[in-house]
Every structure is written in C-alpha cells, then in structure tokens.
Amino acid sequence: MPVKATDKKTGKKLVIVESPAKGKTIAGYLGEGFEVTASMGHIRDLPQPSDLPAELKKTGVGKFAVDLDNDFEPYYVVSADKKKKVAELKAALKDADELYLATDGDREGEAIAWHLLQVLKPKVPVHRLTFPEITREAIQRALLEMRDVDVAMVDAQETRRILDRLYGYEISPVLWRKVARGLSAGRVQSVATRLVVERERERMAFRPASYWDLVGTFATEAAEKFKARLVSVDGARVATGKDFTDRGELKSKTAVHLDEAAAVSLAAGLESAAFSVRSVDTKPYTRRPAAPFTTSTLQQEAGRKLRFSSRVTMQVAQRLYENGYITYMRTDSPALSDQAINAARRQASELYGPEYVPEARRVYKGKSKNAQEAHEAIRPAGDSFRTPAQVASSLRGDEFRLYELIWKRTVASQMADAKGSTASVRIGAVSTDGRDAEFSASGTVITFRGFMAAYEEGRDAVRDDDEAEGTDGARLPVLKAQDTLTAADIAAGGHETSPPPRFTEASLVKMLEELGIGRPSTYAATISTIMDRGYVTSRGQALVPSWIAFSVVRLLEEHFTDYVDYDFTAELEEDLDRISRGEAGRVEWLNQFYYGDRVETGLHTIVNDLGEIDAKAINSIEIADGIVLRVGKFGPYLERPLPADAPEGTEPERANVPEDLAPDELTAEKAVELMETAAPEERVLGTDPETGRTIVARNGRYGPYVIELIPEPTEEDLANAPVEYYKNGKPKPPKKPVKVKPRTGSLFKSMSVETVTLEEALKLMKLPRVLGTDAEGNEITVQNGRFGPYLKKGTDSRSIGSEEEIFTITLEQALEIYSQPKQRGGRQAAAPLAEFGADPVSEKPIVVKDGRFGPYITDGITNITVPRSTAIEELTREQAIELLAEKREKGPAKKPVKKRAAPRKATAKK
Predict the structure, then answer these.
(1) Which of 902, 845, 904, 899 is nearest to 877 (CA)?
(2) For the chain, what is the largest distance between any 2 Cα atoms, rounded to a whole number of angstroms?
(3) Which residues lie below 8 Å from residue 81, measured CB to CB, with a gap of 6+?
(4) CB count in 10 Å sphere of residue 832
(5) Are 397 and 861 in contact (CB under 8 A)?
(6) Catalytic entry in 100, 169, 328, 563
(7) Cα separation of 856 and 874, whole Å?
(8) Which entry of 121, 143, 290, 862 is 20 to 30 Å from 87 by CA?
(9) What are the pLDDT digits (tens) for 440-470?
(10) Res 839: pLDDT
(11) Over the stretch 620-663, which tens digit does the pLDDT of each residue have?
(12) What is the number of other CB atoms lying within 10 angstroms of the CB of residue 502?
C-alpha cells in the first residue's frame, strides 16, 4: 500500500472499530499513543435507484445502482447519515502516523474496512487487525499478526450485496403487481417463509387418526410398582401414532390397530391374568456433551431455555462481546482455542471435581469449510475466563442469563460423559379369551452425571405421538426373567395423532442451518424481516404464516421455482464461500446468475419472459367445496364464486376471516360456519340530514362500524377547483379537489350491523364527545376504546361504566370522577389499567399501571412509560411487548454523573 512520508510525526495511531462500545473497551487495553474511534458500521452502500444522479438513471446503473454494462460494478455512495462521521474520521486521520482498521473479522467487517480505505484514502501505513475477543491478551496477539485487507472476502461480501439487490429488485415488483404493494422478496427470507408455509400446509392437510392402547400398573413381590405399555397382541405389534400417515391412514399392514371396543375388551380379559417377566435387556448408557456454541446453536438454545428471540439473542451477545465478556458471536465453528480448553477443564475440575474431567481433551470440528473465516466457538472471553459468580456484580438481566448459558455450555463441552445403564423389560400374559398380550417398559439409571452436572441441552417441540410412547425414563425395580408380577391396574386409553409442530425461531434456525441456507450472522435478521413484513406472526413461540405469505410463496413456486428451491439457495451460499476463498470470480459468477448458465436461463430472462400471471388464482385457496379464500387488499375473506348463469351485477356471498384464526384452523367445517353466520357486509341506514350524505353500517376486519359515503367529485366540482399557477405566472390545469376523509364510528358491543339505527350511527360518528373544560382549562372528552368507555383529560384517562354512558355523562359527573385521586399502593391498590398476558421473554404478566409520572407498562421486571402519543385504550399487546423489548435492549437507565471539564490538550496545527 503506497505510503507518503509526512513532514511531522505525531506518534498518534488511529484505530477504527465499528461501534463505540467496542472502541471504549479496546481503548482501555491499547494504552497511550492510540486514539480509538468508531465508524458506526458501514459508511457507504448502494443507494436507491431513485436517488441516483439524473445522468445515471438512463444508463446501465439506473436499474439497480449496479452497472450492468460494466461487470456489475456497484455504485456506492456515502450514506446521508454518515457524511458527518466520514468528515470526523478524515479529520482524525490528518494528524495520525498510522491507521489500524480493527473492524470485525467476518465478511461484513472486512468490507467495512475496505470501504474505509476507499473513502479515507490514507497516506500513512495501514494495518488490518482482528481479534476473536476483546481482551488484553487477544489484542496483544492481534497487534503481532497484522495483515492487509482480504480482497477475496470483500469480493464475496460485495457479490452477496449485489446478488440480494438483483434478486429483490427484480422479483419484488412482481409481488407488488400480483399480490400487494409493499411486499418484498429476498434470497433467504423467501425460502424461510416457504418453510413456514409448507409446515402450515402439512397441518392443513393433516387428518387425525384415533387409536387405543393399554397401560398396566404392575407390582413385584416386594410391592415395588411400575408402569408398562402394551406393545403386541398375539405376536403382532400394536399400532402407535408413528404408524399413521398425516392423512390418518395406517402405514403398516402388520400392525394391530386397536379401537375402543377391542382395547376395553382386552383390558377386561387381562384383569385376572397371570403376568410374568419374559425378558430383561440391560445395556450400558453413555451420553456425550454438546459442542460449544456456534451462532446458530446459541440462537436455538437461547430460544429454548431463555425464551429469547433470535434478534434479542444477537443483540445481547453483541453487547457481551463489545464489553469483553464473550468471544465473537458470529461463527460457524464449534472449535475452542487451547487456552479456552485449558480454562474450561480447570474450572470443571475446581467446581465439580477432577473425576468430572476426562483424561483426553475434547476437540470439536465444524462442518463449514469457511467456519466464518476461522473464528472459534462462542465462549467466555479471556485465556482464563470468568465464572458466572465472578460477573454477577457487573452483568444484570438478559446479559447475565446469556453469559451464564454460554459459560455452562463451554465448561460442559470439556467434561466427562454421563454414564449409566438402560433396562428394557418385556412382560406377558394370556387373557381369559386366549389372546397373548405383551407389555414393555424401559428406564435409564444415571450412575455418573458427568457433564450433566453443569449443563444439559434443550429440545425442540415434537409431535405428541413422536414422544416416547413407552414408559421410558421411569426408574424400574430390579427384575429378572420368569419373575411373577401382579397387575394392579390395566387401563385402556384412547389417543389421537397430532399434526407436525409449527416452527419456532429455534427450530427454524436449526432447519435453515441443516439445509445450508443463509449464514449464522443472517438468521436473526431473516426471521425479523419475515415477521416485520407480515409474512409470519408468533403465537407463543410458534411461527404462524399469514395468508398473504401463502400467496407470495405460491407465486414464487410457480414462476420463480429455482429461487425458492432449498438446494439452489444452499448452492448460492457455497458459491459465495468459494469467492471468499478466491476459488471463483465475482464478475463471472454474477454474469452466470443474472444472464444465464447459473440457472437455466438467468434471472433477467425469467423476469422478462414471465407472461401473464393470473393474480386471482395466485391469491385464491380452495378451503371447502364451493368456498374459496381470497387474499384481498384489506385482508383475507371467504367467497362463494357465482355460477356461470348468475345475472350481471350479482355480488357473490362473502364472509370475513377472523384475524386471530390461524390457517390450519380454517377447516372446511369452519369455513361453512363462517359463511352461514356471516352478517351482511353492508346495510344502508339513511341520509345525514345535515350533509345529505348516505350513512352505511359495515362489517370490517376489525369489527362492525358505520361510515358516511363521500361522493366522487363531479365535473362541476372539478371546474370550480382552485387554479394554481406556475412560477412564471402561466395557469396550471385545475387540481382535483382534496378528498374529504369520511367520518366513521365503531359500533358498541350491544349493537350490530342488522340493528344499528341512523340516529345511533350519527351519534357514533361524532365521538369523541367534548364535555367541556375543568377549572384550569383542560378539555375533557368521553369516548370508547379497546377496554371500554373512558374519559380523557390530557394523558389522564378514567374508565366509566357502560358504553351507553358515553352519550349521557355530564361535565359535572366527569369532574366528580377526576376529583377522586387514583389509588396507588397501600391496602387499596388500584387494579391494572390494562392487561396483556404473559411476556414472551420474561414469561411474567404484562400490565399497564398508573405511576407517579403517568401510565407505564411492566412485566414486574422491566418498566417503560407509555408514550404520550398513545392512549392506554389504543395500546395493543404487540406494542407493549415491543416497548418492553426495546427497554431491555437499552439496559437500566444510568443517572448522569457530573464531571469536571478535563483540561484541553494542545493539538498539532492542521
């Protein structure tokens, strides 16, 4: 790299990192002579094509901000919000003798370093250094292992960025035209959405099957009791849930399918039968610890054990890394450094005993060739890392919980295997009607806990019928063949097969990793994107696709097959890895992808040759015979298509789909019920005598309401519209009159579209009703909200009795209510202002309380004030959860500490 000699040496070494938090930690280890500053992430990126200079919009750059005529050369611009930062960095560099680029060591970090070089154009020596953890030892090692920017890694990041721009900007407009405005397609997000939709399709197609079995309670001569389950009758295996297809059909022809009558009859025939032990099979049991955390396994386990979303996991991990508590949190590798292995083994020995540490060190290897550019696993930072007890005073809440999880997993990974034995017992008898029945029980006895003393891995949800259907896990008495047993109870029980479980964030991350789709650093952003776009919502921990996601996935499957194919998407990731290793060229690869060879014809040709797409078919799903679900502009609805001979102008029957009804819950029976009970969509109530406008009552997506119809402007209205003038004084054609917003009003719970009157509708549309002002001049209104009728004075809301009181309550009555103080604390603690169920993170109930400084949301752990712009009655559960999550991310508020101004240091003249 060219170096220009400077006239004056200052001794200053400028270090640029990505975030201020990381910079603050690093600065404490570097000592004098180093100045650390942050770039705040990427300083430049591809602009929106609409923001390009006019002279470029008609060139090969105009469509994507990527020059299609010049080897896909990207057109980068410094982001508007980063111009000030770039100016600060240039100023800091002017009097520096050396520049150290200390951004993260993955592709994004390498690209940030490269962009800094391109923009700052340093004339001093430049060093690239990375560290897997922010500790004194790691930084000292990094200073001894400095290198140049890795151009191959930068090429891979740039290729990924251009690839995502080509993919999104070519396919998303098709979704806008055929499904709905504002939708987006993405290389990984579309495939993740498809996975969730396919699982919901499986649940929709699922048909339960019923089966019966017997569970016996047996006792030995020593009166030790245990349970065993029926496994065979007359030598034929008894069917369990695993023997049925998702269509409810029995897969095995040899399995015996017991119905209720057969099971009850067999149970009765075995009541007095003589049972004996037919066989006992004992085997040694060994279980190895799980490998240290990679990014994906950390997200999975934090989801299972801590109830963190992927986004929260990565945000908390980022803070732990930047403050020097853990190693870098984006990695595919489960490998540990020698220092970490030694630390884990030493701590395991000290805390649990020498016998808990195996003689041989455990070595873990990852599957990825790149393993995120050779980072090691996520573990506590340092050559001799700290125990949870040692960080308890400096870490709180989510940060402590995640650190403790990482520490436990790391230490357990170097501990001894768990040891024990498993026993499987077969018990038999002949019923009174001559049928041979055999029961089975199995149990595991752990004789040495090994790594389980520190940590045990969690499990994802499985089908009820995929769980062990015997009595696995129960402790069994000592038994041997030919032992006689007494049947204390033989009970027949019925079961029903269950559908495939929905994905959780943890299981979706696991599936994406297994398929090789995306990279650990992208999983959290991918899941956040598909939820923010409305493709997926959460129900507890389960991910539920929206109906619009069904339309999007169907369009992509039918017209962009390769681009939502799992193998194809995984191959794209492998190709990017090849580019990062210098084994493939960026330009050649992008040419193949966009113009052909990479896929059969290339994305450009596919989009240009799409032909006509039937939007109605894409947005329609047959739910029952003669009933179709349509995805419309205002949400999903059911419709009975009109017969071919229906008179012109006839409207088909329609019914709204409840917002909280998941796709798999919309069965054929439910669809028929909704159609039969659907209220009329619209009923004309009459004319407003004051405005002459028609008033109608409608059933909407969010409940019944009334609305006034605003007529379209007439020719006379247009002719009388105000005339505007250009700056040169020439008249401009009349503008269309400003569209008047219609008045609306939600119906009370006691009202319906069929019964509401014109008089009631006119009153509803006048809400909120102004009652008057108090002595200080504050206006008091009365209105209806989600939690019932209430008074409002500024930010002070008070509930009132029934909805009907909205029209009858007087100012004097309202003032009387406000004269009574809200009860806080003491024996007469006021009830919560609102309740929203359990928080998905803390699992504590979320409530809104009235505090000293106004209403606030709390789960008993985290508090956040209700924004002034939001009325309590309008607050939703989703908003409450989001506000609490944001507060957790910020951490506890710190009181400002007054500091004396530091003396100004003399600076070199610039």
Answers:
(1) 845
(2) 110
(3) none
(4) 15
(5) yes
(6) 328
(7) 14
(8) 143
(9) 999 888 899 999 999 988 776 656 554 434 4
(10) 78
(11) 999 999 899 999 877 899 998 888 787 876 778 888 888 889 99
(12) 23
